[in-house]
Design brief:
The chain is of the alpha/beta class.
Amino acid sequence: MTKKVVIITGASSGIGREFAMQISKRLKNMDEVWLIARRKDRLEELRDEINMPCIIIDEDITSPGFADKYKKMISQEKPSVKMLINCAGYGIMGKMDEHNRELELGMIDTNCKALTNITLITLPFMAFNSRIINLASSAAFIPQSGFAIYAASKSYVLSFSRALNHELKSKNIFVTAVCPGPVNTEFFRIAEDGGKRAWFKDYFMVNAEDVVRLALKDSMSRKEVSVYGVSMKLLMIFAKLCPHRIILNVMDILN
C-alpha cells in the first residue's frame, strides 16, 4: 500500500520543528513524516518526541549530491505526499559588502534554489488534495537595507508560491506562503552574526507555535498567504500602498 507522508525541510529547529510537532498531533492518518535537516542529533531528538513514524534525512539541502539522492529515494519509495513543508533557510543581517560572499550566496541557494528544486522533485508524487507550505517572511513585502539578500530571497518565495498555487489548482494541490514577522527561534542567533536587528522588531516578536497553528489552518483553508498577527497584516497592506523608497528611508531613521 502506498504510504501517505509529510515531508519537512529545516525540521531540526525553529518553525520546521514546530510544524513536525503539530502535524504529529493533528494529522493522525499519516503513515510517515520525512524530516530533513543537517543536524542528525536534533532530528533524532525530534523523532523521539513525536508520535509518528519518521524517516531522518540528515543532509544539507544545498550540497551537490543532495538533489540526486533525494530524487532517487522518493522515486524508489513512491509515497503519496500529502504535505510538503519547505522551512529550510537562513538570513544574515548587515550590509552586503561587510559579509562573507559564500554566506550571502548561500542564502539564495538555500532560500530559493533548494526550495524550488525540492518542490520540483516532489511534485510528481503529490497526492490529490495535497498541500505545499513555503516559509517566506514579512520581509518579503518590502526591500530591507541591511537585510537585502534575505528580503529579496523571501520575496522570491512569496511570488513563487502564489504563482505555483495558481498553476496547481487544477490538480487540487494548494500552496500557501507563510509570512511571519520576527519569531522567537534560533533564527536571530545566526542572523545577528553580521549585525543587530532593529530595536522595534522586539515589540513584534511572536511564538513559533502560534505561527504554525495559523499556517496549518490557512493551508487547509486553501489560502495562498498566511500572515500571523494584526501588525504584520497591516505591514502587508502598507507595503502595497506606500512607495518602497519612502519605507527604506523611514527604516534607516528607525535603525
